[in-house]
């Protein structure tokens, strides 16, 4: 039996202000948000990237979400990227630097409080 050809089309986000949150993520990813009425679409900024769709929140914001984005940056650039994202409106929450030898990450939240991580992986021996 052949495995299905499946890929991620877009991350869907409910937001209090879909246009503003889409603009934040457009600046983060280098993309350009397309606003249409009360929704916004952010196409992938480059091949292999990811798209995002923002729609009005349909109910109260959950106390805790069960999913979040893990973003990856080149080794040695995490701190500068976190600083850039904080200047754009993200909030730094915590760092995890020595729990796993294969990754270090910082957890942040976007302007509406959605958590996401910025991770870096050390080069492998021989790279």
TrEMBL record:
Domain of life: Bacteria
InterPro entries: Glyas_Bleomycin-R_OHBP_Dase, Glyoxalase_6
SUPFAM superfamilies found in the cross-reference section: Glyoxalase/Bleomycin resistance protein/Dihydroxybiphenyl dioxygenase
Residue ranges of domain Glyoxalase-like in the record: 11-118
Gene3D superfamilies registered for this protein in UniProt: 2,3-Dihydroxybiphenyl 1,2-Dioxygenase, domain 1 (3.10.180.10)
Pfam families: Glyoxalase_6
Record-linked PANTHER family: CONSERVED PROTEIN, HYPOTHETICAL FUSION PROTEIN
Descriptive protein name: Glyoxalase-like domain-containing protein
Lineage: Bacteria, Bacillati, Actinomycetota, Actinomycetes, Propionibacteriales
